[in-house]
Design a protein that fits this description.
This is PilZ domain-containing protein. The protein is an alpha+beta fold and 130 residues long. It contains 3 helices and 7 strands; from the N terminus they run βββββββααα. Strands 2-3-4-7-6-5 form a 6-stranded antiparallel barrel. β3 and β4 form a beta hairpin.
Length: 130
């Protein structure tokens, strides 16, 4: 099968919160790309496509505690506790998405060289560098 995704999805297990109308839904980040993320929430959120939410990704201390990464998102799809969101209204460089993606890649000790080469290509294309 041919990979049709525009950007690599880095697997993760970071804790997340999805905030909608003051209600916070806890969960785990399944994977993240430059465009969006897949979340596994503790309870089915009951949010329909197009719903705007604030995603907070809790980062590991490095070496000091860091505030959560906050990104405005829009729900794309959901099934039970899984929810796909796309990033909206943010500056990718300023939001820390690239830094987070790189951090998540470093956490994968068994990462295949082909995957790393593919990610480097995506980053080069994304940042318009040779």
């Amino acid at each position: 099968m041919t990979e049709s995704r525009q950007f690599y999805r880095a697997p993760s297990s970071k804790k997340v919160e999805l905030v909608h109308h003051g209600e916070s839904l806890a969960g785990v980040l399944e994977n993240i790309s430059f465009n969006g993320a897949l979340l596994h929430l503790c309870h089915p959120p009951g949010l329909s496509g197009g719903t705007g939410c604030l995603l907070r990704i809790h980062l590991d201390p490095d070496p000091e505690p860091r505030p959560p990464l906050q990104i405005w998102t829009e729900v794309v799809h959901g099934a039970n506790e899984l929810l796909g969101v796309k990033f909206v209204d943010h500056d990718v460089d300023g939001s820390g998405c690239i830094a987070l993606l790189m951090e998540l890649m470093r956490e994968e000790p068994d990462q295949e060289q082909d995957d790393l080469d593919r990610v480097r290509g995506y980053l080069a294309d994304y940042c318009n560098t040779p």
